[in-house]
Amino acid sequence: MNIGVDFAEDAKLNKLKLADEAESLSSMLAFYGEQMAEAKAARDKAARALELQCAQTELDIRRNPPKDLDKLTESIVKALVTSHPDVVKCEQALLDAKEKAYTMEVAWNTIDSKGSMIKVLQALWGTGYYSA
Fold this sequence. Notes:
With about 130 residues, this protein is mostly helical.
């Protein structure tokens, strides 16, 4: 089994091969858990990069305000920071990182629920549910 190559395949459960499914479950949980941890770390790094970029951009604007402004108000500074290309780029990187983190969390939860289903199916096999 190639874990992580095709999530749809990883999420499938073959009730006729419960032993194989149970055996591969820990590897799947480890793989998707690691992917989720990496995605969350990347999201946190992107959030920090955005904070730093906003701070640097605000300092730059306050030190060198645009010449075409009569007055530099807080709302104007906020608007200039928010619309600055470097800030927009960091915001997009954060959104992309969040999307990846959410996706990996869903993947991990799906594989985790597969483990619960294996337990249910094993119990059903044990009671003879599938023997009739």
